[in-house]
Amino acid sequence: xxxxxxxxxxxxxxxxxxxxxxxxxxxxxxxxxxxxxxxxxxxxxxxxxxxxxxxxxxxxxxxxxxxxxxxxxxxxxxxxxxxxxxxxxxxxxxxxxxxxxxxxxxxxxxxxxxxxxxxxxxxxxxxxxxxxxxxxxxxxxxxxxxxxxxxxxxxxxxxxxxxxxxxxxxxxxxxxxxxxxxxxxxxxxxxxxxxxxxxxxxxxxxxxxxxxxxxxxxxxxxxxxxxxxxxxxxxxxxxxxxxxxxxxxxxxxxxxxxxxxxxxxxxxxxxxxxxxxxxxxxxxxxxxxxxxxxxxxxxxxxxxxxxxxxxxxxxxxxxxxxxxxxxxxxxxxxxxxxxxxxxxxxxxxxxxxxxxxxxxxxxxxxxxxxxxxxxxxxxxxxxxxxxxxxxxxxxxxxxxxxxxxxxxxxxxxxxxxxxxxxxxxxxxxxxxxxxxxxxxxxxxxxxxxxxxxxxxxxxxxxxxxxxxxxxxxxxxxxxxxxxxxxxxxxxxxxxxxxxxxxxxxxxxxxxxxxxxxxx
Length: 519
Known about the structure:
Layout: H1 20-39, H2 41-53, H3 63-73, H4 75-79, H5 88-106, H6 109-128, H7 130-135, H8 137-142, H9 154-171, E1 176-179, E2 182-185, E3 188-191, H10 199-216, H11 220-252, H12 254-282, H13 296-301, H14 303-309, H15 315-337, E4 356-357, E5 375-382, E6 388-396, E7 420-424, E8 432-438, E9 442-452, E10 455-457, H16 460-472, E11 479-487, H17 494-505, H18 508-516
Antiparallel strand pairs: 1-2, 2-3, 4-5, 5-6, 6-11, 7-8, 8-9, 9-10, 9-11
Helix pairs in contact: 1-6, 1-15, 2-6, 5-6, 5-15, 5-16, 9-11, 10-11, 11-12
Subcellular location: Cell membrane
Main location: membrane
Pfam families: DUF3485, Exosortase_EpsH
């Protein structure tokens, strides 16, 4: 009986299919990604919740399997490349961590979520090197589609949809008038609401268009053309949708039009539009079905990639640096989050010469949003001469997630309220001025001032930059928001009422400081 031969041990399962020179780098990358997701779990959890709960971002649930498929499509060419740890990838990682810190300091969740995704990209660059990145360039870039963005476009898209609707109503000879995003016809009053802005279809089409452009086109000009089609057509289609709802309401009534909109336009119309975009693009597809998505020979022969690859470093050093950068960002954030400005025990409404508190109710309820404020004042003042002004004041010990004085959906126009933006308001010094409207219609001028330190501004961007500087320097400063507003009616104009009130209070900055009891 012949002795049994001893066979070399072979990796089991999936690792048996992975080339030997790829096994350790692949394990290192997987472990690093899992650690980064665990360290920044709060941001990934919030992203997943948005993918699942918000219809605007439901399409992102398909992105992770698509990323896996895209990577596998390039796997045969990528397998021939030897991964090399690369120090410039740490620059990307450091930039992502710094962006996360800034997003955390400013309370901007979009910046933190974008940074969490870019950290994974930076780690891949640092651990695998430039040639692998070139082979997997599109999947790495397409990871940005994991970031739920688009809500910031809603006001702009509402305005565009309303204007397109008016053009189509004029073409079909349906008389109508428009105030911002409100359209009045002889048979009804319509609002191009946030849900009707078309943002969810636009964002989904951008992600879909990018995927098709990469997989089905070789020419960069054709890719650009298809992406332009993927952006323009959804916007135009949403205008047709809004017009169609009003047109149907003109002969079948508003209730029928609303139900038809939810059923046909919500489930069928945009599927047809997506099909139309594909039909238009189909005849211009120029990538052969069996053509490789990556030119492995060009990557191997590239002198530029050869020069970049010389910037190598040991893999253990790259792993340690990625971990150190992530932990440094978290430590910086933890130190800054412990910083808060001292707050008074209470704040009180100031006396305004010539003005008294007024108990009359507005035509339409208006309640500005100041989420997370440590102190809040709301009042209505009148001077007995027909001028009536509503005041909303908020004081914050610090700014952060859930405590954003000028954040999206905060202030004079709360997200999801009955109020909608109509037009820019009359200019006031160092303030943001807006005309907003509620069904009725009821028009209101709202003027907003934001203050921290010596800064008085109406710009949320300037406020966030000042807040970020304070957090970076671990400097505690209070933040304030003041909104003065007046309804349009039969009496004095809203602008006259607010200017009369300001004449009685004196300069805005010291008046806000006195109200907050911080100076």
